[in-house]
Specification:
By secondary structure, the chain is mostly beta strands. It has one domain (2-732): TonB-dependent receptor, beta-barrel domain (Maltoporin, Chain A, Beta Barrel), CATH 2.40.170.20. The strands form 5 sheets. It has a 22-stranded antiparallel barrel. The protein has a 5-stranded mixed β-sheet with strand order 1-6-7-4-5. A two-stranded antiparallel ribbon has the order 2-3. Strand 14 and strand 15 form a beta hairpin. Residues 1-22 have low confidence and may be disordered.
């Protein structure tokens, strides 16, 4: 029904076309004045950041998720469980994973409040409704949501378009990949406008059975008055994804027939989740120098992942042993579903006042998260009464986050300005009930207070820009860190002290920037292999660790339609000292403690290079070569060559041609050859190390390898697709 209403409004808007043309200049001016996001950086903000505009996004938008849209920006490494960039995807920025990277959409926090991760699969084809992406590296500016610890990703959805439009994006590719989407807008109708998008993406995946069935829509209703804008936005996604989380044994990577192996074989081993986002934005110009922004949001999420489990103990699921004559049955094969039912609600606000030499922003947010975690056994081989589903664990949680910040940018003169930013976060986190191991979580309550200052100085002289920045961030542990911790020995919050020093030179044809950074951590939480008092693995605070490096970015327009855009990141990422705990499968089963000093942080390559060479011809043909090199990276914190990812160099070729398709003036056909040189590589992995003198598990477990120190490693890798193709047809008015 909503789609039908928007379609009618789209047709009606053509009646007002003459009025739209007259209002376009006025509307664009007002939008420029009012579209303020207090979290975004500009050229006077002394931090390292990259903006990706819609024109660049559209060139690589073929159905893959945000991690693959931003993968060629500095210090980014992207990965995909299915090996195609569709389905479950993730990325790291300067080696920091997504739980340490704050993500907002129109200023609204997106990270899950408990796990602190971002699940892009829940927002399929969101990129088709994104106008601009800003990536801040390091602590950055104060923002809403979890404190930015490795970086910040700000997504801004489509701006209000004063003219009516329609476009359709259709892609077909390898692995039975299909993307179909349509976007439309009414343009300005006496201050009102409506925009929308519907999308469907399907792919079988490169890995066996790693299929994805994704659907989404995006709707917005907008009002532009003389000095105010109101946006109401609703976007929703549903994903059904066959699990490929377990990865591929290391020994299978060199065998073409085994390289796509998937551990899961149960026919319904799926993840099924729906997420529904509602946003209300109000922007008011009080006078020429003062602006007020207010946003309210509500996100609903519900879904499960289904698993087949073999030879499970009945007692682990709160079930009693069964008796058949003289036989006692204490284990069973079963199918279970682990559910998450949550909602996230809040408001954000900011007030901006500009004086002769100073711009002042006061902002903040209040958010509350409520989550229900529960698991059901929906079938078992042996049952006493046949009553299913059987609820075997159930707990609920509440988390509030109150954030307040003040920012001042003071200009000493036209070239020199100082930036001061202070943020206060107050967090309350409660959960109660029983987790899946039937461990009591009753009455856990954490209250945390963080104060995060930032200060910097910026020198901007038209064609040159230099800056110096210092920022502090503090971040709370995740849900699993609390749940798995030893009784009354909760982990400490992590602290980060970040220094950035940069210089940029540009002219009408080229730009080069060099940014050096130092990120020093106190109490960073890392995997050490340590067990808690009930035998679960926990992340442990390590006293000292750091990341330091340099990022070089360059853009050059050589003329005649030839453009180069590239970046090079060189870094050193270390833990000063920590104790590794290695399981021992032999009696008395005590863990072996190994002390490591000056070892590399896991998943932190020392070299990352990316570039795009692009040539545009007068006849509407464009050729682009996207390249990405990632140096070797270790998959645990031991710097062992036996547990690492090899370096890789991947190139994608894009050929596009602007066409006149009937009366559609803005149309393009594009052929993409991904991984054109058929590089065989893996870009993510996990590992588990242990000792076992009495039993050699390699014959029974293809994931296990023997190490040179006589320990064993169960290691799993995520190989990516070799050469593959995508053909896209975009049709637009």
């Amino acid at each position: 029904m909503r789609i039908f209403i928007i379609a009618v409004l789209f047709l009606v808007s053509n009646i007002n076309y003459a009025q739209i043309q007259n209002d376009t200049i006025k509307l664009n001016r007002l939008l420029k004045e009012l579209e303020i996001n207090a979290s975004l950086a500009d050229k006077k903000t002394p931090i390292s950041f990259t903006n990706i505009k819609k024109i660049e996004i559209d060139k690589i938008n073929f159905g893959k998720d945000i991690p693959y849209v931003i993968k060629n920006t500095p210090s980014i490494v992207s990965s995909s469980d299915a090996g195609t960039g569709i389905g479950y995807t993730n990325f790291r920025l300067r080696g920091s994973d997504q739980t340490r990277i704050n993500v907002t959409i129109n200023g609204i926090p997106i990270n899950d409040s408990e796990s602190q991760g971002v699940w892009w699969v829940n927002m399929p084809d969101l990129v088709s409704s994104v106008e601009e992406i800003q990536i801040q590296r390091g602590v950055g500016t104060s923002t809403n949501g979890a404190s930015a610890f490795g970086g910040t990703i700000n997504l801004k959805t489509n701006t209000i378009n004063p003219l009516p439009y329609f476009n359709s994006r259709n892609t077909i590719g390898s692995f039975n990949t299909f993307k179909r989407s349509a976007s439309f807008g009414t343009g300005n109708m006496n201050g009102f406008s409506f925009d929308g998008r519907i999308s469907k993406v399907n792919s079988d995946g490169y890995i066996d059975r790693a299929s994805a069935d994704l659907e989404s829509y995006y709707l917005s209703a907008n009002y532009v008055g003389d000095d105010e804008i109101i946006n109401i936005i609703n976007f929703k996604g549903n994903e059904v994804t066959y699990q490929a989380w377990y990865g591929v044994p290391k020994n299978y990577l060199e065998n073409d027939s085994l390289r796509t192996y998937n551990y899961y074989t149960y026919k319904n081993e799926i993840d099924n989740y729906t997420q529904d986002h509602y946003q209300l934005h109000y922007k008011k110009q009080l006078n020429n120098n003062r602006f007020f922004n207010f946003s309210a949001h509500h996100t609903l999420g519900e879904g499960y992942y289904e698993q087949e489990k073999l030879n499970e103990s009945l007692s682990d699921y709160g079930l009693s042993d069964l008796y058949f004559g003289n036989d006692t049955v204490s284990t069973t094969n079963l199918v279970r579903r682990k559910w998450l039912d949550n909602d996230f609600t809040g408001a954000i606000y900011s007030f901006e006042n500009s004086l002769d030499k100073a711009k002042f922003i006061l902002g903040g947010s209040y958010n509350i998260y409520r989550g229900k975690h529960f698991g059901n056994v929906i079938w078992s081989q042996f049952t006493s009464d046949g009553s299913y589903p059987h609820r075997y664990y159930n707990n609920k949680s509440t988390k509030t986050d109150n954030n307040l910040y003040a920012k001042i940018n003071y200009e000493f003169n036209q070239s020199i300005s100082m930036f001061v930013d202070v943020q206060s976060r107050n967090i309350s986190y409660d959960f109660e009930g029983f987790d899946e191991d039937n461990t009591s979580l009753t009455n856990l309550n954490q209250k945390l207070n963080f104060l995060n200052p930032k200060i910097g100085i910026n020198f901007d002289n038209n064609d040159k820009r230099s800056y110096l920045y210092f920022g502090k961030a503090e971040k709370e542990p995740s849900r699993n860190d609390y749940v798995d911790s030893e009784y009354n020995k909760y982990p400490k919050s992590e602290k980060l002290y970040n220094v950035e020093l940069g210089h940029e030179i540009k002219n009408s044809a080229s730009m080069i920037s060099i940014n050096g950074y130092f990120m020093y951590y106190e109490d960073q939480l890392v995997n050490t292999g340590k067990l808690n008092d009930v035998g679960a693995y926990i992340r442990t605070n390590v006293d000292e660790s750091y990341r330091t490096g340099v990022e070089i970015t360059g853009i050059s327009n050589f003329g005649n339609g030839f453009l180069f855009n590239g970046s090079l990141s060189i870094s050193d990422n270390k833990i000063t000292r920590y104790d590794e705990y290695v399981d021992n499968w032999d009696p008395p089963y005590e863990q072996t403690i190994i002390t490591h000093e000056n070892v590399d942080l896991a998943f932190s390559p020392n070299i990352i290079y990316s570039s795009t060479f692009e040539k545009t011809f007068n006849n509407g043909i464009q050729i682009a070569l996207n390249s990405k090199y990632v140096g070797e990276q270790f998959i645990d914190n031991t710097s062992s060559d036996e547990r690492k990812l090899d370096d890789y160099f991947v190139n994608n070729l894009i050929l596009s041609y602007n066409i006149n398709f009937f009366n559609f003036s803005n149309s393009k056909i594009t052929l993409v050859v991904n991984n054109i040189f058929d590089e065989l590589y893996a870009n993510n992995a996990w590992t588990y190390r242990y000792y076992s003198e009495g039993y050699d598990p390699r014959a029974d477990d293809p994931y296990t390898n023997l190490n040179s120190d006589n320990s064993y490693s169960m290691s799993s890798y995520f190989p990516q697709a070799g050469r593959n193709y995508m053909l896209s047809l975009n049709i637009g008015l």
